[in-house]
Amino acid sequence: MSSNSAIDAGAAVSPRPHRVLSIAWRMTIWYALSTFALIFVASGLLYWGLAGSLYHEDLRDLADNLNNARLLLPAFGGRFVPQPPAKRPSWAPRHQPEIYLRLLDRDGRTIVATPGLAAQLPPPSRAELAAVVAKGGRKLDVVSPSDGPFLTLIEPLPRPDRPGAPRFLQVAMDRAHDEYLLARYRERLWLVLGISIVLCSLAGYLIARSGIRPIAGIVRTAARIRSTNLHERIDPQGLPSELAELALTFNTMLDRIEEGFRHISQFSDDAAHELRTPINNLRGEIEVALSQPRSNEAYREVLTSCLEECQRVSQLIRTLLLLARSDAAADALRRERVDVSELMANLGAFYEAAAEEAGIDLKASGASGVSADLDRTLFQQAVGNLVSNAIAHTPKGGSVRLTANSRGESLTVSVSDTGCGIAPEDLPHVFERFYRADRARGGSAHNVGLGLAVVKSIVARHGGRVEIDSELGRGTEVRLILPMPA
């Protein structure tokens, strides 16, 4: 295989795009993560609220027991024997809270205590009791030697027989029941979170698939469109507002593409037709000339006619190339500062001989001092096409006027004639390529309907527009309006 063939083969195979996650999967992941995050935060807040509620409830129970014990202590002469925790009935919850009491002297020695408390919770140290005296009471969260969580309240109590000699009352609660409840809650919470992530993922996938289903329809419609069925469009009915706007934009693009294809097809047909006529003429004349011996003068006439046809083909090709460059906008305009009034005078002088030969009064005028940045060659061609077109379609004794003036930030060049005019039904099409209003204008044999198309293309490249007014039997006026910034 040659190198060129290898290059062509490589260019024909487009590189495969890098695979990324589809929109459906992205939406699924984001929906699942965001929903799960909300559920997780809500569950965490509920867990935190439950733990705090249990803790404060235990604290209130301890405070109530401490107050009750302090009130009952004088009735027992400052001493009482705490009873052991009641035996839990078989029907009671497994982890029921247990309350313990302990009475301490000023040195921290136990005076009396609920049986079993010493094994669960050792007495406080003298430093801890000193802090209790300083603060008037203290709350402690401690852990027993058996790793059981306890919540205690210690409060100093005055002794009636010895004022100023403190003793202490301690109330403790085994919080294992709270840990048991929270552990069970956590187990159920993790189960709920596990189920939630699965359900969130499934719901997110279903929602994402449902959301992109209209996109899949748009893709299928776009995949069916070929150059042979550019008339197909995406139906925006029933689509969400964002996708409906996308469908309308896509349909608008298809309208432009279809119009472009139609123009290209029509342009190709017209160009082939216009080129076929002079080529057939050349072939016919050459065949006739070669059919039998002729004189030198006869051959000269044939060659002269062939030369005219060649010039016609050459002019047509130049015009087609100019239009092609204008469509592609490949060549930048060669702008220069042009004195428009001087340019109008030069054009008038150039076409004066043709106008006199046709018996037409041609006058050119322009406001002095009017200048603009233009491509001189292209602009002369545009105005020259209008002048020659006006002369060709104005009867003998008529007039053609060429004027130029500036209004604000725009330059207006007008070419008017008193010719036969253009029919209203032909007026919207006169700037189309290869269009000839034959019913309104006879035109010369060399007119192929590209003159006004060239004018419109040149003016468009200058950023301007073309306006035309015409009336049958009264004449036509064409105005070139170009921007002329300060």
Task: Describe what you observe in this structure.
It is rod-shaped and about 160 Å long. It is an alpha+beta fold. The protein has helices at residues 3-12, 23-72, 117-120, 126-135, 176-224, 241-290, 296-328, 340-357, 376-392, 451-461, and strands at residues 98-104, 110-113, 138-143, 149-158, 166-174, 335-339, 361-366, 371-375, 399-407, 410-417, 465-471, 475-483. A five-stranded antiparallel β-sheet has the order 2-1-5-4-3, sandwiched between helices. A five-stranded mixed β-sheet has the order 7-9-10-12-11. The chain contains ten helices and twelve strands. The relative contact order is 0.06. A hairpin with a 5-residue loop joins strand 3 (138-143) and strand 4. Among the domains are: 241-326, Signal transduction histidine kinase, dimerisation/phosphotransfer (DHp) domain (Helix Hairpins, Orthogonal Bundle); 332-483, 2-Layer Sandwich (Heat Shock Protein 90).
Features:
five-stranded antiparallel beta sheet; 486 residues; 52% helix; disordered N terminus; Heat Shock Protein 90; Helix Hairpins; 10 helices; alpha+beta
Structure at a glance:
By secondary structure, this protein is α+β, with helices and mostly antiparallel strands.
Unreliable spans are 1-14, 439-446
Number of DSSP E strands? 12
* Terminal Cα span: 61 Å
- Give a short account of the largest sheet: 5 strands, antiparallel
Q: In which order are the strands of the major sheet placed?
A: 2-1-5-4-3
Mean pLDDT: 78
Rg, rounded, reads 51 Å
Write the CATH homologous superfamily of one domain.
Histidine kinase-like ATPase, C-terminal domain
CATH topology of one domain: Heat Shock Protein 90
Shape: rod-shaped
Tell me roughly what share of residues is in helical segments. 40-55%
CATH architecture descriptor of one domain: 2-Layer Sandwich
Count of alpha/pi helices = 10
Task: Write down the secondary-structure element order.
Answer: HHEEHHEEEHHHEHEEHEEHEE
Strand content: 15-25%
CATH class of one domain: Alpha Beta
The chain-level structural class is alpha+beta
